[in-house]
Amino acid sequence: MADNQYRVIHEITPLVGNDVLYIADRHKMEFTYPIHNHEVYELNFVEHAPGVRRIVGDSQEVIGDYDLVLITSPDLEHVWEQYQCTSEDIREITVQFDFNLGKDTLFSRNPFVCIREMLQKARRGLCFPLAAIMKVYSLLDTLSSVKDGFYSVSQFLSILYELSKFDDARLLASSSDAKAEVEDDSRRILIVKDYIARHFKDDLRLSELSRMADMTPSAFSRFFKAKTGKKLSEFIIDYRLNYSARLLLDTNKSINEICSECGFNNLSNFNRIFKKKKNCSPSEFRENYHKTRVIV
Q1: 46: how many CB neighbours lie within 10 A of its CB?
Q2: Are residues 17 and 140 in the same domain?
Q3: Max Cα separation, the chain?
Q4: Would you say residue 53 has pLDDT above 90?
């Protein structure tokens, strides 16, 4: 990014110890997670989301119905933004993995060299053509339903092997640590979004946020709605809800604890808003989603 007025989130992934894969297969109505990077490798598949803007380093592209990207640099910031997408039937499959590509590892052996070379190439972000996506679609589609850890890894290696055969995969960023370039208007929004991300548990006031953008409250309200498609109050609530959803999935904290950590005044209010937005209660969300989230 042109200057460091806002932060890129360094994501802490669920992989620990001897874990190999983290697989998340989810259906959603919008993209809300901010720009980030992480230590582990990631293969991210998106379908039914035309109009979403994908940012990988200094690459920005609006995607079509299908998008498949491999990222293997811990410094390469990336995000899928809602942008012009109006679909309410988005599917996203994220596979995060931690492979050792050292000289004396399995990936230095002949059958795996093509995968190793692709993973090294993907430090700049690698976007696969539609033909490659269709080739591995059935394997991606069923990956989260494979119950045996060995077969999950085996199936994922098959996906990587098939993808490595496509020489027309495109490099996205100019380098493995390239920064996203943003326009001045977008920078104002990102500064405010970053502040919300750091203080969403607090009582956020329009007057305070508008000062950060150097605008009057009324002008900032119109500006924010025009740029994000949401009122400021709605955006803050959605941020709190999405953070609570991540806690529901990635921790064993009680719903009452999560309610308090996410800036909601009381449990009944949290349950009511969550159910209105997610069409299920927090407890139902936790139970249902865990069926499509796998760590092996």
Answers
A1: 24
A2: yes
A3: 63
A4: yes
Neighbouring-strand partners of residue 68:
45
- pTM exceeding 0.85: no
Please, what is the end-to-end C-alpha distance for the chain in angstroms? Answer: 35
Q: 212-241: per-residue pLDDT in tens?
A: 988 999 999 999 988 878 899 999 998 899
C-alpha radius of gyration, the chain, whole number? 20
Same structural domain, 89 and 19: yes
Q: Which domain holds residue 105?
A: 9-171
| Closest among 227, 121, 236 to 168, alpha carbons compared | 121
Residue 255 pLDDT > 80: yes
Half-sphere exposure of 151 (CA within 13 A, CB side): 8
Would residue 217 count as lying in a domain? yes
Q: Beta-carbon neighbour count of residue 12 at 10 Å? A: 10
Residue that terminates a domain, selected from 111, 136, 171: 171
Show the 3-state SS of the chain: CCCCCCCCEECCCCCCCCCCEEEEEEEECCCCCCCEECCCEEEEEEECCCCCEEEECCEEEECCCEEEEEECCCCCCEEEECCCCCCCCEEEEEEEECCCCCCCCHHHCHHHHHHHHHHHHHHHCEECCHHHHHHHHHHHHHHCCCCCHHHHHHHHHHHHHHHHCCCCCEECCCCCCCCCCCCHHHHHHHHHHHHHHHHCCCCCCHHHHHHHCCCCHHHHHHHHHHHHCCCHHHHHHHHHHHHHHHHHHHCCCCHHHHHHHCCCCCHHHHHHHHHHHHCCCHHHHHHHHHHHEEEC
Angle between helices 217-228 and 184-199 (to 10 degrees): 100
Q: CA 219, CA 226: separation in Å to the nearest integer?
A: 11
Residues 30 and 160 in one domain: yes
